[in-house]
Write a structure and sequence with these properties.
The structure is a single chain. The chain is mostly helical. It has eight helices and no strands. It has one domain (2-218). The longest helix is centred in the middle third of the chain and has 31 residues, at 88-118. It is globular, with a radius of gyration of 18 Å.
Amino acid sequence: MLIKEVKTLIGKDIKLELKQKYVLNGILLYLLSTIFVTYLAFEEVLTTETWNSLFWIILLFVGVNGIGKSFVQESPARYIYYYTIASPQAVVLSKILYNLLLMAILALLSFGMFLLLMGNRLVNLELFLLALLLGSFGLSSILTMVAAIASRASNNFSLMAVLSFPIILPLLLTLMKLSRLALTGSDWSGTAGPLVILLTINFAVIILAYLLFPYLWRD
């Protein structure tokens, strides 16, 4: 039953996104223009460390802009409708999975643009793609949960930035450490620690969202 509700809600989000193409187009324009301006600014002084840092910082801001609207764009009447047809667990899981799909697409586009404009500095492509997947999962789950909390307040975007920072910071630092290993070495030595941290953060946020969202839903 839960899986069926999640699939239905994800399909609804995809259809709404396709109808409101200007929102997705705006995110893509923001992503491409930011990467292009970064390329123009750092073309002459781009190092491996700078490449790595800029990639994740840009992806973070794109994720905040893209996922921050998850619950803000939903009207109170639509919340009441969801309450009658689906469980709160299905609602939050569908939002996380949909935002994971969106975040993964944005991450791959960012990666492609970085390779095109700033060159390929990767030594271990598989490790970097794994970091990209775990990073997309972590950003989508954290930002979705924070967006749900912030949607109950009047100053949504500011509250979302304040609440998400202490949670995203360890995730972002670990992602940068893992991707740095992919940029500097071809083997997988030293990756066990960052991978365990990323998996722990991802699963902890999913479990907290699953357990706590029903209480937020009632309010």
